[in-house]
Input
Amino acid sequence: MPELLPTYEKLVELAGGDDLAARFLSSYCPPPYLTSCSQAVWSGNAPLLVRNYDYSPFLFEGVTLKTAWNGRQVIAMSDCLWGVLDGVNDHGLAVSLSFGGRPDVGQGFGVPLVLRYILEFCSTTREAVEVLKRVPVHMTYNVTVLDRTGHFETAYLAPDRPTLILPVAVTTNHQQRVEWEEHARSTGTVERQRFLEERLQNNATGSDEFVQAFLEPPVYSIAYEKGSGTLYTAVYSPTALLVDYLWPDCRWRQSFARFEEGSRTIKFPGESLEVVSSSGVNPP
Output
């Protein structure tokens, strides 16, 4: 990812320039981390990429960041300080990740950095797919990509086997089959996938109804004590160039035309979480 190097070097400098900062910000061979998550593409006149991020509120940065580091604007939910859990750029390319259901760890980058690279330098799903085929990742993940033409693909990534690209609209926490039975049972990955696939196959389901499905069980999770509760729902519209962050009693819309810096406090059963929206400083 050579085009990302100047941004990386500037961030290392801002973080103090020492070896620890450089290693951390490289996101190369990071410690293993497991999320849950559900994501799907609604293919209507104005296609949407919808996702639930399921994780521990204690390990979530809770920052959505608008940047223009490389001449391209990006709005993304941040991870590992400059990585991306999900996001969209001003060319109308949206991406999202979910854990792929295997504990295997290998040599490669943390996938949030790969998503940052895609949003910084890709304009289409086709371009994003070429990156996902090329860049090694350290764990198994599913990455769904949607561009403003409605073209979408899902990449099944793994550290120990070739990337598989398929036009799959719904992904949860397994790939073509369940490979980690215990994790699959505890997160309901098969049940969540079937639920969303049924909603997509129902011709009467409109975009609003489909989005609402992400706020209902079994897709919406309250397993916060297990570290896999739903922390937010994101709805990306590549054609309108906006994102809605949703909770059962709150909606926060952000767009390139009107980005609001601020914060929201979200209350979960027994917990609360502050989500911050911020604009990043452009490196010189």
